[in-house]
Amino acid sequence: MKISFATLASLALILAPLSGLAQAAPQTVQQPATQAGPSPAQIAAEQKWLAHEARIQAAKQQALRNQIEQVNRDGLPVRIGTIAHFRGARDFQLSGIGLVVGLQNTGDTQKSALTQTLYANYFKSHNLTVDPSTVKALNVALVEVTATMPAFSKPGTLMDVTVSSIADAKSLQGGTLIMTPLYDAASNSTVIASAQGPLSLGGFSAGANGSSVQSNAVNVGRIPGGGEVQTRINSQVVFEDNNHQVLYLDLDDPDADTVSRVVRAIQNFNMQMHPYAVDNTTVAITVPPGMDPETAMGKIAQVEVNVLIPARVVINERTGTVVVGGDVRLGPAMIVSGSLNVQIDTSNQVVQPNPFSQGQTASQSNSQVSAGQDTAKVAVIPTQSTVADLARIFQALQLKPNDVIQILQLLQQQGALKARIVLQ
Questions:
Q1: Inside any domain, residue 354
Q2: Which of 105-119, 164-178, 344-358, 408-422 has the lowest mean pLDDT?
Q3: Which helix (H) or strand (E) holds 58?
Q4: Are 186 and 235 in contact (CB under 8 A)?
Q5: Are residues 150 and 223 both part of a single domain?
Q6: pLDDT at 246 over 60
Q7: Do 373 and 323 share a structural domain?
Q8: Together in a domain, 155 and 224
Q9: What are the pLDDT digits (tens) for 89-130?
Q10: 3-state SS string over 280-291?
């Protein structure tokens, strides 16, 4: 059979795309390259960054140490009005006995005879006669009312009062204090202030069918602005000395160094005040000519003075709280902290007698005692360590509050802790 040239040309055109597909099929897929480890340059960069962060942290710790050192050396700048007060310019403590009414059967019971008597006297003041023995109201509670009256308070000045139950009331929730006179400690005949109003409690109590729930104290409440001053208490603030008006400034915490610093600060503020230290508590100040005592008191209270922080450690073992002053110093010492754990497991078993032995059933206790000791944690205190250094050591040792308290007491006994410990 003869095939013409035209037929061969047509077959070539038809088979050309198929040959292209056949050539493309064998192509293999390129696999992704396996990731290699960090290069030496990356490792060097990471180490450089870590070193930079370490330098930053060291600089921050050194800055904190420098601040503590500066405060310990120069003192903490405070206003004189925050560490001292003028003699005679003091607050007055007031108190009185009253009744709270409007309770929901949570008041005093008949066991409180004083409540019945005071309740009957209250009705008597309103021209009503009531036999105290017949009073059975559970919506009344006998309370003590206390308040703090600021210095120089005049009649009409309002103040907050605190109301506390003093009998067997279950709760003062929802109660209202009736008019109660308040007296000061110097005289029980002159009414200084009066108090009344609804109570505001910081808690609540509820119960039913023998179950109850309570949050915070419900036998103590406050009446914001419930007290009103009726009589002013005169107090002497300005004294006469050689025809000069003199003010006496008393420190809240007696200290000889603080008194001398206060004298220098007032003298630098106004030479005409002629301050001088009477003792380690009091500074005598002369009112300058042309200035009234009130203005002088206000200006002196705003004068700043640098006060040294006492080297004192306050420990409250009941709550596990420790407060360390900034000027506490520690000498070289080593702390080894560890604990001995003793565990006793007791299991009770019932022992039955043998059959027909006429024995009795008995109980038997099996005790297993195991003891172990934790790995000791060691820390070294360098010379002239401060509060910041001690805090870092305690944090590194991961100590509990009781361990911190014991270590501080032992450091003082050893002589490394140069501070006075105050136990509360």
A1: no
A2: 344-358
A3: helix 40-74
A4: no
A5: yes
A6: yes
A7: yes
A8: yes
A9: 889 999 999 999 989 888 888 777 788 888 888 888 878 887
A10: CCEEEEECCCCC
Q: Where are the alpha helices (DSSP H) in 368-418?
A: 387-397, 401-414
**What is the per-residue burial (b if ≥16 Cβ within 10 Å, else e) of 203-235?**
eebeeeeeeeeeeeebbbbebeebbbbeeebee
CA–centroid distance for 228 within its chain: 31
Residue 379 lies in a domain: yes
For residues 336 and 413, membership in a common domain is answered with yes
* Number of domains composing the chain: 3
Query: Within this chain, do residues 221 and 246 fall inside the same structural domain, yes or no?
Result: no
Same domain, 268 and 319: no
In a shared domain, residues 242 and 327: no
Domain that residue 293 falls in: 78-87+236-307
**Which stretches does DSSP call E strand in 32-166?**
76-79, 84-86, 92-101, 140-149, 158-165
CA 296-301-306 angle, to 5 degrees, is 130
Pick the closest to residue 194 from 147, 151, 152 (CA basis).
Answer: 147
Question: Rounded to whole angstroms, how far apart are CA atoms 376 and 398?
Answer: 12
Instruction: Compute the distance between CA of residue 258 and CA of residue 279 in angstroms, rounded to an integer.
Output: 11
Domain shared by 168 and 285, yes or no = no
| CB-side neighbour CA atoms (13 Å) of 198 | 5
- Cα 127 from Cα 137, distance rounded (Å): 19
3-state secondary structure of 273: helix
Please check whether residue 110 lies inside any domain of the structure.
yes
Whether 66 is in a domain gets the answer: no
Span of 191-205, 246-260, 383-397 with lowest mean pLDDT: 383-397
d(CA 297, CA 154) in angstroms, rounded, equals: 19
Instruction: Pick the last residue of a domain from 284, 307, 330.
Output: 307
Q: Are the beta carbons of 258 and 251 closer than 8 angstroms?
A: yes
